[in-house]
Amino acid sequence: MRRWAEFVLTHRRWVVSFWVLVAIVGATVSGAVSERLTYDYSLPGEPGSETAEKIDAHLGNGGKNAPYLVSVTVADGETIDAKAAAVAETFDTVAAEVPDVRVLDEANTGDDAFRTKDGQTSYAMVFWRFDTSPAAERPTEAIRAAAESGKPAGSTVGVTGMDELATGASEEGGAGVLAETLIGGLGALAVLAFVFASMLAFLPLVVAAVSILATFVMLLPLTYLSDYSALVQFLIALVGLGVAIDYSLLLVTRWREERDHGLENHDAVRAAMQSAGRSVMFSGLTVAIGLLSLVVLPVPFMRSVGIGGALVPLASVATTLSLTPAILAGIGPRVDWPKIRREDRASRAWQAWAAKVVRVRWVAAGVSMAVLLALLIGLFGMKIGQSSSDSLAKSGPAYETLQTLEDGGVTTGSLTPIEVLVATDDAQAAAEELAQVDGVDRALVSTDESSNRDGSSVVVVVPAEETVNSKSVDVVERVKDRSEGLPGVVGVAGVGAAQLDFMSAVYGNFPLMLALIAMLTFVLLARAFRSLLLPLKAVLLNLLSLGATYGLTVLFWQYGLGSEALFDISETGAITFWIPLVVFAFLFGLSMDYEVFILARMREEYDKTGDTDRAVIEGMGRTGRLVTSAALILFLAFAALASGPGTDLKVMATALGFGILLDATLIRAVLVPATVSLFGKWNWYLPVWAARLLRVPASSSRAAPEQVDAHVGV
């Protein structure tokens, strides 16, 4: 790290010029990158996904997504019976005018369940072709316009469905990536202004902006090799903002500390790079490991999130360890104005806090563990699936249409029907058999050509309730089991089948992913801390923190203990199936950052004094304010992300925010100093055999005061 610091100092103008060029290129290509991202959530090789592809190939629609429900409500005093022909013509107009749709209604199925109990509303299921391009528009307005043009005089038309409900009452779809990034940036600037109390507050923001643009540059060539999820752009912008600011904050603070201790500017840069710079490098690698572990999952969009997300900490480390020291070496002292706050002494408030924790370490550790275990209980009630229709919207046209149908006795299972691909000659017999499955409301066979092509037909099985979580999706399993013995059946698809595929492909491989992350993180931290106990404790505490975060998320969203008050969204009933994995991959690395920052400084202080309690107090005094500020900046970034469109994005963002706050307060401010104090000298022990394997110096359980080692630090 010293050699790298010397290189940056010697060529600082070239380093700054390089990053200015990268920023210009990034600003130029960011739009093109966003256009190349996709919304493809398919699971190649899984039975439901394979059947969905066949349905799309035969019929040109459906299989992968929930249908629209299009309703026609006749005027007061009239009935559907009297307007049956005109209502059927309305749905025929939709089928004729909107490309690539398949319409099921009372006219082509002969099923009077397509009308409400009061006889005033009739509806149709409209299956459509899902376009994975982020620039593609859903056919909502085209369907509504076609229905309006063909409706009976005096009647009203409504359009609803899971995708329509997910947009809520707003037609604008959230603040957008740029606006959310600006919101997060303004919040971060306020925190940085408090931390630095000088113009240096702008430096981490500049570094973060360059880091985000650099990440887009790195991602662009990858989009030509494979498809990348549109979720990646949110992660680059907002997680990138928080991570890059955090890393730069730590490096700049250590530079100020070295300056306040009397070092000349360039010497202060070298010292900061040797200590805080090394911690930043280890932290970035830890975050990247957590995200790259998603690559072991046989799910393309999750792999893309892992690879694309891993670029965020790598770009943040690259900019922090080159652009930040280059700027500090050039104009650092001049922009550190007005210098209100000094860094030559540890924070007295945090030293006092750490001293109290050390004095009552047994109580502190016990209370912290009790709180975490209490939150962990919520984890065992988690339902994996997707948000229920009740939580998706509470106002707007889609919500009102659904209420009309529900009030008329239409089951919400119509929102998530099961599609069974079967030979046309066997379709009617299969429908009669599948209608008898427990939990099935009815099975439909359409006579329309759009549902019967190339000798294949789709039997639409309507469950008694929407299949949105790991409990209600059981009916899909029963339909799959029954259909396996029926002649002519090719397979089962639909929203519920996709959930089953995901749970099988992803959560079946989760132990492998967990083992991979834990092993790599342990080795990396063992090298950083020159200890066996500290990395083991760090991994275990991280897992406990994640479990508590899941439990808190379940309580807040699944059971609605706060979601309605904060977001005006009812309980979701389940946690969307991909969210726990993404939260795990990000939080495991991000929360480990704080562990590295705190323990690295404690290690440095212990190597100076040989006194564990003193190392804990001094380490917390030096890092407590930084970790709290860094966590607050990340939390503000996630809060901005929560303002994005859709319930799923809000759930993911709040889960990440919960995890960061929980980790930076209860874990790092209480449990970590308490347990380090409890384990005493054994924290620092690294036997010779392990040191040889890790290729670092051995460490006894007692360091002499003269054994000063700046091997790691903040």
Automatic annotation (TrEMBL):
Gene3D superfamilies: Multidrug efflux transporter AcrB transmembrane domain. It holds the Pfam family MMPL. It is found in: Cell membrane. The chain crosses the membrane at residues 175-195, 202-224, 230-252, 280-301, 307-332, 362-382, 506-526, 538-557, 577-600, 626-645. InterPro entries: MMPL_dom (IPR004869), Mycobact_MmpL (IPR050545), SSD (IPR000731). Residues 196-330 form the SSD domain. Its main location: membrane. It comes from the Bacteria. It is a multi-pass membrane protein. The keyword Cell membrane applies. Keywords: Cell membrane, Membrane, Transmembrane, Transmembrane helix. One of its GO terms (cellular component) is plasma membrane. This is MMPL family transporter. The lineage of its organism: Bacteria, Bacillati, Actinomycetota, Actinomycetes, Propionibacteriales.
